[in-house]
Amino acid sequence: MEREDAAIVDARERLFVTYELTGPQDPYQRARQIAVEQTAELPEDCFGPEIDRRVVGRLEDLERLDRHRHRVVVSYPAALAAGELPQLLIVLFGNLSMYGDLAIVDVGWPEELLDDLPGPSLGIEGLRELLPATRDRPLLCSALKPVGLDVEALAELCLRLARGGADLIKDDQGLGNQAWAPFEARVVACADAIERARRETGTHSLYLPHLTGPVETLESRLRLLRELGIAGALVAPFVTGLDAMRSLARESGLLLLAHPAASGWYWHGNPRIAPEVILGDVLRLAGADGVIFPNPGARFPFNERDASTLVDRLRRPGGALRRAFPVPGGGLQLDTLDFWRERYGPDTIFLVGGSLFQQGEVEDATRRLMERLGREK
Amino acid sequence: MEREDAAIVDARERLFVTYELTGPQDPYQRARQIAVEQTAELPEDCFGPEIDRRVVGRLEDLERLDRHRHRVVVSYPAALAAGELPQLLIVLFGNLSMYGDLAIVDVGWPEELLDDLPGPSLGIEGLRELLPATRDRPLLCSALKPVGLDVEALAELCLRLARGGADLIKDDQGLGNQAWAPFEARVVACADAIERARRETGTHSLYLPHLTGPVETLESRLRLLRELGIAGALVAPFVTGLDAMRSLARESGLLLLAHPAASGWYWHGNPRIAPEVILGDVLRLAGADGVIFPNPGARFPFNERDASTLVDRLRRPGGALRRAFPVPGGGLQLDTLDFWRERYGPDTIFLVGGSLFQQGEVEDATRRLMERLGREK
Question: For the CA atoms of A126, A131, A135, A136, what is the dihedral angle to 10 degrees?
Fold first, then answer.
């Protein structure tokens, strides 16, 4: 049970999944039920010892937490996923998600799988190379919002944020291809604003348009990003699909900031997959260079333990797997920034939207905030 | 509040979302919080009346269920989605999924959106045309499993099911591209088995290979299916992405059976989106011709009310939107089949794997089951 603090790579060729089981049912019986459900998915009398040996999960550990709570580790052959992320997810939580009373609290990832899932194309070090002036300070990301603004207003906001020196400026995940601000016109105008700010003030911001499908548009939207020299994008992987993000990371080489929209179903309530697993390890394996999460004490219920563990997971050593930026957001208040900066350290991107806009004129407010974060004057 | 029983099409240009809110907080305040969270996503002092009018959700109805439970209807402009499924999902449940204590219990879909989301490419009527001999009886789908069998064993099982007359034979969702049964070899061998059974016994089964990414493989896998004359596929949309399924339905014209793997996060626990919305309306809008769900009384906890409502939703009138087959499965026991057949009626696909294999020799067992379902002898 030392995996919790170990490196992300588990040297073995098996996937180790730790479950927390609640209820009066015999935990050995339940562990076997899980091990079969996620593999053979047949009554015990419908398969023989060879299938059992080849694919069915194996009970590796069982720990009694209290009378009706057990922690159980079941391992699965990595060969079940055969290097494909969708099959990995099916083994990890496909049918289990339908059981209702179960938590996946940890996963040890086999090296064999990691070879096929290269993860972030840039990671922390790659983004630092794109923005060398950030050196070892935290970064600021702000957002173009609200949805409903037209192209001109969004580009004007982008210009002000860029002139103020925001490191990253992302589209709101609400921005799609709305009639009043179509994708292409918006992206062209915002890229232009970034360039204009660079010429006028010497600031170097990265603009991240929102690139969450539809599938048929991805090729032409990617082409546009390339033509404009845009280096990154915002993706909502729980909307567009984790495998779509993985593929985008691999094919495009863009810096990908993962938005947690539609992820709450996974990590809230029961059944549940621990946020550090689904927003941490899984998003990192699926190619996120940075992972936005709801910071504790802001708009969404997310506790400090979950936040700290998630942050550690994104940045822990992973062999060839690049480290990813934690991106606390979700209504982060500026008056708590020093606390969180101390807590999370420099390899952090603070996502600040509303509470920045509340400080008055955006360019000045951004400049003041960047100075607080330690930007060279 | 008549939407519950009305047709799927809501004539207006707005999306009507019904929430159930639990807790002591003022329901008007919470409704406003939701309406802003899913749209402007900014503090109230950061946007003006024009944004409010253009994009922010509107409270349409509020009903007190008991002291601390309210049913609230908020409407959103369909223009926010701009015809794109990913943006629709972001408006519908992106950030809200992270709130924790909330249920989405119903949605009224605007006609404007339905024009852009054509839904199933075949639907109930289209599948009946592919299998005219099924006329007005329920269909049988069985599964090639367990994962771990090699190509030869899977093809042999496919042959027996096809000779027995199973209408549909799907890959298990666990079948990917495993070394012992690679995708291409498996699909070629199973398609061949189907053809052999047709020649030998005159049975006409449809084979549905599992087509859940990875993204990069889809084109070549689709090409293989086309070359082999395969008319349908199994997809796990909550793994591969709902938009990926929509695109597949549109581009390929394949009959798509949607597997509920990884959907339990949505409809179990709290937060929650009602199964008839997420497995019903949403999967139908996203192009599923049939939706597999865990039948009550089998392996997964799924109640009869949810099952009946889901079945109705898949088959209710929808204007140009084709009706989809409900596919009860998840460990359906053969001794309950008559009950469910009576309950669900003829436009149903019964998914029977394990309990069929438990009846002894598969070909004979399949033949007997098909006779029970009313196949012409």
Answer: -60
Q: Taking CB atoms and an 8 Å cutoff, what residues of chain B touch A86? A: 176, 212-214, 236, 239-240
Phi-psi region for residue B51, left (φ > 0), alpha (ψ -120 to 50) or beta?
Answer: alpha
Beta strands B290-294; B349-351: pairing state: unpaired
pLDDT surpasses 50 at A4? no
Please state the rounded mean pLDDT for residues B314-319.
92
Measured between CA atoms, the residue of chain A closest to residue B359 is A46
Which one-letter amino acid corresponds to residue B136?
D
Distance CA A192, CA B229 (A): 49
The DSSP line for B155-217 is HHHHHHHHHHT-SEEEE-TT-SS-TTS-HHHHHHHHHHHHHHHHHHH---PEEE-B----GGG
Tens digit of each residue's pLDDT (9 = 90 or more) over B317-363 = 988 899 999 999 999 999 999 999 999 999 999 999 999 999 999 99
Q: With beta carbons under 8 A apart, name residues in chain B contacting A299.
A: 37
Positions of E strands within B25-153: 58-66, 69-77, 103-110, 139-144
Each residue's pLDDT tens digit, A243-283: 999 999 999 999 999 999 999 999 998 899 999 999 999 99
- The DSSP result for A121-134, as a single string, is SSHHHHHHHHSGGG
Other residues' Cβ atoms within 10 Å of the Cβ of residue B244: 28
Q: Which pLDDT score is estimated for B4? A: 43
Which residues lie closer than 8 Å to A222 by C-beta, 6 or more apart? A211, A252, A254
Distance CA A45, CA B43 (A): 59
Percentage of residues in chain A having pLDDT higher than 90: 91
SS3 B370: helix
Backbone φ, ψ for residue B256 (5° rounding): -115, 120
**Mean confidence (pLDDT) of chain B:** 94
**Terminal-to-terminal C-alpha distance of chain B:** 48
Burial class of residue B135 in the structure, from the number of CB atoms within 10 Å of its CB (0-12 exposed, 13-18 middle, 19+ buried)? exposed
Torsion-angle region of residue B69: left (phi > 0), alpha (psi -120 to 50) or beta?
beta
* Cα→Cα distances B69→A290, B102, B255, B276, B306, Å: 38, 11, 41, 21, 20
pLDDT at A319: 85
Cβ-defined contact of B264 to A97 (cutoff 8 Å): yes
Interface contact B86-A239, CB threshold 8 A? yes
Q: Check pLDDT > 70 for residue B3.
A: no
DSSP structure string for A313-377: HHHS--TTSPP-EEEEESS--GGGHHHHHHHH-SS-EEE-SHHHHTTSSHHHHHHHHHHHTT---
User: Among B43, B94, B215, whose Cβ lies nearest the Cβ of A261?
Assistant: B94
* Token output for B331: 């460990």
Name which of A148, A180, A261 is nearest B40 (Cβ-Cβ).
A148
| Other CB atoms within 10 A of residue A53 CB | 11
pLDDT at B11: 52
Q: Do A98 and B294 touch (CB under 8 A)?
A: yes
Choose the closest CB to A214 out of B179, B243, B270.
Answer: B243
Q: Do B214 and A263 touch (CB under 8 A)?
A: no
B353/A148 Cβ within 8 A:
no
* CB burial readout A293-328, b (16+ within 10 A) else e: bbbbbbbbebeeebbebbbebbbbebeebbbbbbbb
Reply yes or no on whether the pLDDT at B364 is more than 80.
Answer: yes
Q: In this model, does residue A2 exceed pLDDT 70?
A: no
CB B168, CB B205: distance < 8 Å: yes
**Tokens representing B74?**
């908020």
Identify the DSSP state of A58: E
pTM of the model: 0.96
Contact B176 A90 (CB under 8 A): yes
Q: What is the mean pLDDT of chain A?
A: 94
